[in-house]
């Protein structure tokens, strides 16, 4: 399920899509991925969350976490007197928001029912701040040189098909935050289902045959056409043999960033 709440400035373009995987279609389960983007007055926050297949309400955990984090971080950035983001303060705000989300979900039932990962990006003025908990993949690209990119890799657990969730007791030790230069104007946030065909591994890198034409098309059309095209791309039957998982991708392009 995709969500959007946007007051866009012309220089900022974004679109996202979440598609239910064939595995969940066969078992009649909902899509357990979620995405959310908010943009206002030159500040943008984007999140995707991938709910655990083994958790019965992970779709709700993913939806709630993505929305709470985006809304809280946008409000925080816009209320700062300084145009520069202080990374320690942003991390504190992010951690407090995750803790608040955990507390609200704990009132509904066991936190283990709401397992989800988190990939996110804050853009403000000439700054990019990436935050990441668990698997999924975040890629920033310099549009002037697609060989110039930055990656926030997934963190997987000790065993196959395991990762780290915001609902675990030690979630804070797995929260990663990094700053990225302003030359990375294009961003792709993706769940591991999407990353299985949209990125290369060993080492992680964008699959240019997939992501470059995606960017070119999305940047050239309006939001409605972009949303339809991205959904259709993620739900292409050719992906079914690659992954049975839900597939989520958020694309963001901020042409106003100065190098």
Write structural notes for this entry.
The structure is a single chain. With about 260 residues, the protein is of the alpha+beta class. The protein has 6 helices and 12 strands. Helices cover about 30% and strands about 30% of the residues. The strands form 3 sheets. A 5-stranded antiparallel β-sheet has the order 1-12-9-6-7. The protein has a 5-stranded antiparallel β-sheet with strand order 2-3-4-5-8, with helices on one face. Strands 10-11 form a two-stranded antiparallel sheet. Helix 2 runs antiparallel to helix 3 (about 85-105). The relative contact order is 0.19. The model has no long low-confidence stretch (mean pLDDT about 90).
Please write out the topology.
Layout: E1 12-19, H1 22-26, E2 33-40, E3 43-50, H2 58-78, H3 87-106, E4 118-124, E5 127-133, E6 137-142, E7 145-152, E8 175-180, E9 186-190, H4 192-198, E10 199-200, E11 205-206, H5 208-218, H6 223-234, E12 247-254
